[in-house]
Amino acid sequence: MYSVSLEVTFDLLRFTWIPILLVVIRNTYRTYKEKQELLVARKQHLLPVNAPSKQVAYTYWQELQKIQEEEIILMRTKQLAADKRQDYLLLWSHELKLPLTALRLQAENNTKVDSVLILQELQLMQNQLEMLLGYERLDNFEHDLDFVWTALDKVLMPIIKEYSLFFIEKQLTPKIDVSRVTVLTDQKWLTFILKQLIFNAIKYANPHTDLTITWQQNKLIIQDYGIGISAAELPRVFEPGFTGSNGRQKQAATGMGLYLAQQVSQKLELKLMLLSKQGETTKASIEFREEQIR
Protein backbone atom coordinates (compact mmCIF):
# COMPACT_ATOMS: atom_id res chain seq x y z
CA MET A 1 0.00 0.00 0.00
CA TYR A 2 1.05 3.51 -0.65
CA SER A 3 1.89 5.57 2.36
CA VAL A 4 0.52 9.10 2.55
CA SER A 5 2.07 11.70 4.74
CA LEU A 6 0.03 13.33 7.48
CA GLU A 7 0.46 16.72 5.85
CA VAL A 8 -0.96 15.48 2.57
CA THR A 9 -3.88 13.94 4.42
CA PHE A 10 -4.74 17.26 6.08
CA ASP A 11 -4.48 19.05 2.74
CA LEU A 12 -6.88 16.58 1.15
CA LEU A 13 -9.37 17.00 3.98
CA ARG A 14 -9.04 20.77 3.87
CA PHE A 15 -9.68 21.05 0.17
CA THR A 16 -12.56 18.57 0.43
CA TRP A 17 -14.44 20.26 3.30
CA ILE A 18 -13.77 23.92 2.59
CA PRO A 19 -16.02 24.01 -0.51
CA ILE A 20 -18.75 22.16 1.41
CA LEU A 21 -18.42 24.55 4.33
CA LEU A 22 -18.58 27.53 2.00
CA VAL A 23 -21.76 26.16 0.43
CA VAL A 24 -23.32 25.65 3.88
CA ILE A 25 -22.35 29.17 4.96
CA ARG A 26 -23.73 30.64 1.74
CA ASN A 27 -27.05 28.76 2.08
CA THR A 28 -27.34 29.69 5.75
CA TYR A 29 -26.74 33.34 4.93
CA ARG A 30 -29.30 33.26 2.12
CA THR A 31 -31.87 31.68 4.43
CA TYR A 32 -31.12 34.27 7.11
CA LYS A 33 -31.43 37.07 4.56
CA GLU A 34 -34.76 35.69 3.29
CA LYS A 35 -36.03 35.47 6.87
CA GLN A 36 -35.01 39.06 7.55
CA GLU A 37 -36.70 40.24 4.35
CA LEU A 38 -39.86 38.33 5.32
CA LEU A 39 -39.75 39.83 8.81
CA VAL A 40 -39.47 43.37 7.42
CA ALA A 41 -42.29 42.64 4.97
CA ARG A 42 -44.51 41.34 7.78
CA LYS A 43 -43.98 44.48 9.83
CA GLN A 44 -45.16 46.45 6.80
CA HIS A 45 -48.03 43.96 6.22
CA LEU A 46 -46.51 43.21 2.80
CA LEU A 47 -45.70 39.51 2.98
CA PRO A 48 -45.28 38.03 -0.54
CA VAL A 49 -48.30 36.14 -1.79
CA ASN A 50 -46.15 33.35 -3.24
CA ALA A 51 -44.30 31.20 -0.72
CA PRO A 52 -40.48 30.92 -0.84
CA SER A 53 -39.10 27.79 -2.49
CA LYS A 54 -36.68 26.80 0.29
CA GLN A 55 -38.20 24.68 3.04
CA VAL A 56 -36.76 26.65 5.99
CA ALA A 57 -37.83 29.99 4.54
CA TYR A 58 -41.20 28.48 3.55
CA THR A 59 -41.87 27.32 7.13
CA TYR A 60 -40.90 30.75 8.44
CA TRP A 61 -43.13 32.40 5.81
CA GLN A 62 -46.05 30.21 6.93
CA GLU A 63 -45.64 31.27 10.55
CA LEU A 64 -45.36 34.94 9.62
CA GLN A 65 -48.38 34.63 7.32
CA LYS A 66 -50.41 33.20 10.19
CA ILE A 67 -49.31 35.98 12.55
CA GLN A 68 -50.14 38.62 9.94
CA GLU A 69 -53.61 37.17 9.35
CA GLU A 70 -54.29 37.17 13.11
CA GLU A 71 -53.12 40.78 13.37
CA ILE A 72 -55.37 41.83 10.48
CA ILE A 73 -58.37 40.10 12.09
CA LEU A 74 -57.59 41.79 15.42
CA MET A 75 -57.28 45.20 13.74
CA ARG A 76 -60.59 44.74 11.94
CA THR A 77 -62.29 43.61 15.16
CA LYS A 78 -60.99 46.66 17.01
CA GLN A 79 -62.10 48.92 14.17
CA LEU A 80 -65.60 47.42 14.17
CA ALA A 81 -65.81 47.89 17.95
CA ALA A 82 -64.66 51.50 17.61
CA ASP A 83 -67.22 52.12 14.85
CA LYS A 84 -70.00 50.61 16.98
CA ARG A 85 -68.97 52.69 19.96
CA GLN A 86 -69.02 55.81 17.81
CA ASP A 87 -72.51 54.94 16.53
CA TYR A 88 -73.80 54.41 20.08
CA LEU A 89 -72.30 57.68 21.29
CA LEU A 90 -73.97 59.53 18.42
CA LEU A 91 -77.25 57.82 19.26
CA TRP A 92 -77.02 58.82 22.92
CA SER A 93 -76.08 62.38 22.04
CA HIS A 94 -79.23 62.56 19.92
CA GLU A 95 -81.39 61.14 22.71
CA LEU A 96 -79.93 63.60 25.21
CA LYS A 97 -80.99 66.45 22.94
CA LEU A 98 -84.65 65.40 22.96
CA PRO A 99 -85.40 66.44 26.58
CA LEU A 100 -83.47 69.67 26.06
CA THR A 101 -85.48 70.40 22.93
CA ALA A 102 -88.74 69.71 24.77
CA LEU A 103 -87.77 72.09 27.57
CA ARG A 104 -86.67 74.76 25.11
CA LEU A 105 -89.99 74.60 23.25
CA GLN A 106 -91.92 74.88 26.49
CA ALA A 107 -89.86 77.88 27.57
CA GLU A 108 -90.30 79.59 24.20
CA ASN A 109 -94.07 79.08 24.08
CA ASN A 110 -94.95 79.61 27.74
CA THR A 111 -94.01 82.25 30.29
CA LYS A 112 -94.16 79.57 32.97
CA VAL A 113 -92.99 75.98 32.58
CA ASP A 114 -94.53 73.18 34.64
CA SER A 115 -92.00 71.98 37.20
CA VAL A 116 -93.22 68.39 36.75
CA LEU A 117 -92.33 68.54 33.06
CA ILE A 118 -88.87 69.88 33.89
CA LEU A 119 -88.28 67.10 36.41
CA GLN A 120 -89.45 64.43 33.96
CA GLU A 121 -87.21 65.67 31.17
CA LEU A 122 -84.27 65.88 33.57
CA GLN A 123 -84.95 62.29 34.63
CA LEU A 124 -84.91 61.19 30.99
CA MET A 125 -81.55 62.87 30.55
CA GLN A 126 -80.24 61.20 33.70
CA ASN A 127 -81.39 57.80 32.42
CA GLN A 128 -79.49 58.28 29.17
CA LEU A 129 -76.35 59.42 30.99
CA GLU A 130 -76.49 56.40 33.31
CA MET A 131 -76.77 54.07 30.33
CA LEU A 132 -73.85 55.80 28.63
CA LEU A 133 -71.69 55.49 31.75
CA GLY A 134 -72.74 51.87 32.18
CA TYR A 135 -71.76 51.11 28.60
CA GLU A 136 -68.36 52.75 29.06
CA ARG A 137 -67.68 50.74 32.23
CA LEU A 138 -68.50 47.32 30.78
CA ASP A 139 -64.94 46.68 29.58
CA ASN A 140 -63.54 47.18 33.10
CA PHE A 141 -66.54 45.79 34.90
CA GLU A 142 -64.63 43.38 37.16
CA HIS A 143 -62.74 46.27 38.80
CA ASP A 144 -65.99 47.93 39.90
CA LEU A 145 -67.71 45.20 41.92
CA ASP A 146 -68.62 44.97 45.59
CA PHE A 147 -70.72 41.92 46.48
CA VAL A 148 -72.69 42.28 49.71
CA TRP A 149 -75.89 40.82 51.13
CA THR A 150 -78.62 43.22 50.02
CA ALA A 151 -82.34 43.38 50.86
CA LEU A 152 -84.32 43.64 47.63
CA ASP A 153 -86.87 46.07 49.02
CA LYS A 154 -84.06 48.49 49.93
CA VAL A 155 -82.93 48.42 46.29
CA LEU A 156 -86.41 48.73 44.81
CA MET A 157 -87.97 51.48 46.90
CA PRO A 158 -85.50 54.25 45.89
CA ILE A 159 -86.13 53.37 42.23
CA ILE A 160 -89.90 53.60 42.68
CA LYS A 161 -89.44 56.95 44.39
CA GLU A 162 -87.12 58.21 41.65
CA TYR A 163 -89.70 57.33 38.98
CA SER A 164 -92.70 58.50 41.01
CA LEU A 165 -93.56 61.32 38.59
CA PHE A 166 -93.90 58.82 35.74
CA PHE A 167 -96.07 56.52 37.88
CA ILE A 168 -98.31 59.47 38.75
CA GLU A 169 -98.51 60.73 35.17
CA LYS A 170 -99.78 57.36 33.88
CA GLN A 171 -101.67 56.62 37.11
CA LEU A 172 -99.81 53.34 37.52
CA THR A 173 -99.92 51.52 40.83
CA PRO A 174 -96.66 49.87 41.93
CA LYS A 175 -97.32 46.67 43.87
CA ILE A 176 -94.22 45.22 45.50
CA ASP A 177 -93.98 41.94 47.38
CA VAL A 178 -90.36 41.00 48.05
CA SER A 179 -90.35 41.23 51.83
CA ARG A 180 -87.54 39.49 53.68
CA VAL A 181 -85.65 38.52 50.51
CA THR A 182 -81.91 39.18 50.68
CA VAL A 183 -79.49 38.48 47.84
CA LEU A 184 -75.72 38.48 47.45
CA THR A 185 -74.93 40.95 44.69
CA ASP A 186 -73.40 44.27 43.75
CA GLN A 187 -76.07 46.76 44.82
CA LYS A 188 -75.09 49.49 42.37
CA TRP A 189 -75.17 47.23 39.33
CA LEU A 190 -78.35 45.43 40.42
CA THR A 191 -79.93 48.89 40.72
CA PHE A 192 -78.73 49.63 37.19
CA ILE A 193 -80.48 46.50 35.86
CA LEU A 194 -83.70 47.16 37.76
CA LYS A 195 -83.89 50.77 36.62
CA GLN A 196 -83.77 49.65 32.98
CA LEU A 197 -86.49 47.05 33.52
CA ILE A 198 -88.79 49.22 35.66
CA PHE A 199 -88.54 52.24 33.38
CA ASN A 200 -89.32 50.04 30.37
CA ALA A 201 -92.33 48.65 32.23
CA ILE A 202 -93.58 52.17 33.01
CA LYS A 203 -93.03 53.33 29.45
CA TYR A 204 -94.98 50.51 27.81
CA ALA A 205 -97.68 49.92 30.46
CA ASN A 206 -101.25 51.01 29.84
CA PRO A 207 -102.50 53.89 32.04
CA HIS A 208 -104.52 53.02 35.16
CA THR A 209 -102.93 49.57 35.53
CA ASP A 210 -100.71 47.86 38.09
CA LEU A 211 -96.97 47.36 37.84
CA THR A 212 -96.14 44.36 39.98
CA ILE A 213 -92.76 43.36 41.39
CA THR A 214 -92.79 39.97 43.11
CA TRP A 215 -90.48 37.19 44.26
CA GLN A 216 -91.29 33.70 42.96
CA GLN A 217 -89.07 30.59 42.99
CA ASN A 218 -85.71 32.38 43.17
CA LYS A 219 -86.82 34.94 40.60
CA LEU A 220 -87.50 38.65 40.88
CA ILE A 221 -90.37 39.33 38.47
CA ILE A 222 -91.37 42.73 37.10
CA GLN A 223 -94.67 42.66 35.22
CA ASP A 224 -96.58 45.38 33.40
CA TYR A 225 -99.92 45.27 31.65
CA GLY A 226 -99.67 47.11 28.38
CA ILE A 227 -98.82 46.86 24.71
CA GLY A 228 -96.50 43.86 25.06
CA ILE A 229 -93.97 42.65 22.51
CA SER A 230 -94.67 40.69 19.34
CA ALA A 231 -93.51 37.08 19.15
CA ALA A 232 -91.39 37.96 16.11
CA GLU A 233 -89.50 40.70 17.96
CA LEU A 234 -89.16 39.04 21.37
CA PRO A 235 -85.98 37.02 20.52
CA ARG A 236 -84.22 40.26 19.54
CA VAL A 237 -84.97 42.46 22.56
CA PHE A 238 -81.47 42.01 24.04
CA GLU A 239 -79.66 42.94 20.83
CA PRO A 240 -77.74 46.25 21.00
CA GLY A 241 -79.61 49.07 19.30
CA PHE A 242 -82.81 47.06 18.73
CA THR A 243 -85.89 49.21 19.44
CA GLY A 244 -88.62 47.25 17.70
CA SER A 245 -91.96 48.66 16.62
CA ASN A 246 -92.77 49.78 20.20
CA GLY A 247 -89.52 51.67 20.66
CA ARG A 248 -89.87 53.53 17.38
CA GLN A 249 -93.12 55.01 18.68
CA LYS A 250 -91.53 56.25 21.92
CA GLN A 251 -89.09 59.00 22.74
CA ALA A 252 -85.74 58.19 24.38
CA ALA A 253 -85.70 54.67 22.89
CA THR A 254 -82.08 53.84 22.08
CA GLY A 255 -82.49 50.08 22.10
CA MET A 256 -79.58 49.88 24.55
CA GLY A 257 -81.35 49.57 27.92
CA LEU A 258 -82.21 45.88 27.72
CA TYR A 259 -78.91 45.07 26.02
CA LEU A 260 -76.96 46.65 28.89
CA ALA A 261 -79.23 45.03 31.48
CA GLN A 262 -78.49 41.63 29.93
CA GLN A 263 -74.74 42.27 29.75
CA VAL A 264 -74.58 43.33 33.41
CA SER A 265 -76.79 40.40 34.46
CA GLN A 266 -74.41 37.94 32.86
CA LYS A 267 -71.44 39.52 34.61
CA LEU A 268 -73.28 39.26 37.94
CA GLU A 269 -74.09 35.61 37.09
CA LEU A 270 -77.82 36.32 36.97
CA LYS A 271 -80.27 34.99 34.38
CA LEU A 272 -82.40 37.73 32.81
CA MET A 273 -85.39 36.67 30.71
CA LEU A 274 -88.31 38.43 29.07
CA LEU A 275 -91.72 36.93 28.33
CA SER A 276 -94.55 38.80 26.67
CA LYS A 277 -97.98 38.50 25.14
CA GLN A 278 -98.66 41.24 22.63
CA GLY A 279 -101.46 43.57 23.65
CA GLU A 280 -101.61 42.20 27.20
CA THR A 281 -98.46 41.98 29.31
CA THR A 282 -94.67 41.81 29.55
CA LYS A 283 -92.84 39.97 32.30
CA ALA A 284 -89.13 40.46 33.03
CA SER A 285 -87.51 37.97 35.41
CA ILE A 286 -84.10 37.92 37.09
CA GLU A 287 -83.15 34.49 38.39
CA PHE A 288 -80.70 34.16 41.28
CA ARG A 289 -78.77 31.01 42.19
CA GLU A 290 -79.45 29.28 45.50
CA GLU A 291 -76.15 30.42 47.01
CA GLN A 292 -77.03 34.03 46.17
CA ILE A 293 -80.20 33.99 48.29
CA ARG A 294 -80.97 33.95 51.98
Automatic annotation (TrEMBL):
<keyword id="KW-0902">Two-component regulatory system</keyword>
<dbReference type="GO" id="GO:0000155">
    <property type="term" value="F:phosphorelay sensor kinase activity"/>
</dbReference>
<keyword id="KW-0812">Transmembrane</keyword>
<dbReference type="InterPro" id="IPR005467">
    <property type="entry name" value="His_kinase_dom"/>
</dbReference>
<keyword id="KW-1003">Cell membrane</keyword>
<feature type="domain" description="Histidine kinase">
    <location>
        <begin position="91"/>
        <end position="292"/>
    </location>
</feature>
<protein>
    <recommendedName>
        <fullName>histidine kinase</fullName>
        <ecNumber>2.7.13.3</ecNumber>
    </recommendedName>
</protein>
<dbReference type="InterPro" id="IPR003594">
    <property type="entry name" value="HATPase_dom"/>
</dbReference>
<keyword id="KW-0418">Kinase</keyword>
<keyword id="KW-1133">Transmembrane helix</keyword>
<dbReference type="GO" id="GO:0016036">
    <property type="term" value="P:cellular response to phosphate starvation"/>
</dbReference>
<keyword id="KW-0472">Membrane</keyword>
<dbReference type="Pfam" id="PF02518">
    <property type="entry name" value="HATPase_c"/>
</dbReference>
<dbReference type="InterPro" id="IPR036890">
    <property type="entry name" value="HATPase_C_sf"/>
</dbReference>
<dbReference type="GO" id="GO:0005886">
    <property type="term" value="C:plasma membrane"/>
</dbReference>
<keyword id="KW-0808">Transferase</keyword>
<dbReference type="InterPro" id="IPR050351">
    <property type="entry name" value="BphY/WalK/GraS-like"/>
</dbReference>
<dbReference type="GO" id="GO:0004721">
    <property type="term" value="F:phosphoprotein phosphatase activity"/>
</dbReference>
